[in-house]
User: Fold this.
Amino acid sequence: MSPLELLHDYTIRNVAIGAALLGLISGVLGSFAVLRKQSLLGDTMSHAALPGVCIGFIIAGAREMGIILLGALTTGALAALVMLLLTRNSRLKTDAGLGITLSTSFALGVVLLTHIQNMNNAAQGGLDAFLFGQAAATLRSDLWIMGGITLVALVLVSALWKEFKLVSFDPEFAASLGMPVMWLEVILTVMIALAVVVGLQMVGVVLMAAMIIAPAVAARQWSRRLEGMVMLAAVIGVSGGVFGAVLSALSRGLATGPLIILSVSSVVMVSLLLAPGRGFVWEGVRLWRGRRRLRYQQVLTTLYRLAMHHADPVFRSEQGMLDTYHGHRTRTALRQLQKRGLVEWRSAPPDEPGGAKHWVLTTTGHEEAKRILDSLGREEF
Assistant:
């Protein structure tokens, strides 16, 4: 199928727009969840949305998307608020509260889903698609609902930007300024529940947690400011969502929801590996350079101490002796020190058999070695 045909396909257009909306709201709100160290909050609320989906279906008697999503929002938000109450009014840690709420809510959802399936209601067909998503079933009316929810979330973030920023980084200071920290946390939690609701149709209950976390984690590797992180997370979410949707359309038979998650997750892997200053590759290079620099410094200070011990600034140190002292070959380190003008070759003393050359500190080498030892606070000979 050509790109032009993709643009004219009704189902693919709906899926792509829905995926873009999901990526946008997930990237923006997921940034606050990651910074508040509540990455599992999206997982909890997505699983807690399943009972709401079932309750909404029971009330409507059919797959009325508006009522179903309202039920999902209600139970997801309630589960998150229960978690907040448990952690604030008991000795439970956040992870324990999230685990209890997640497992209990999901168990209730599975029981209700089984009950609905035993009702022999013809309208319940496809209801279990909310577990893993069914993007192809997205209708234009569903997009209006998703778009409205996304717009509400973005307006709230814009209106309360300073407050959300302060609560995310320093809630204690925010409380000292008289801000309603508890209510701000409740609003943030409900907004994350909104993001979960938007993603139920696209990626489902099980995979929605990754959509909340992944764009923010990737953006965090590239940005040092909240503004940049939120915008980049939104771009990553939208790009990954649309790419996964298009890839699913081009590859018939592959589920859209998992492809969207894989697309965003691939950006996370690249970011974790290659992000400047934070990626694993750069960290490995930095560690390698640090070890090499330390090896050079050890050889240089060894030459300096030997010279001080023998009261001879131009004391000649033989290569084999240095190798034995450090337990490894030091020729590479000495060559690098020689290039920097810190050491130089000298002929062996006339009375030494073999006439092998030796290493000697230069004046610059003496000064550099003394500076290194002084910075380490070590006493000289």
In short: The first helix runs from residue 3 to 8. The two ends are 79 Å apart (CA to CA). The first strand starts at residue 317 and ends at 318.
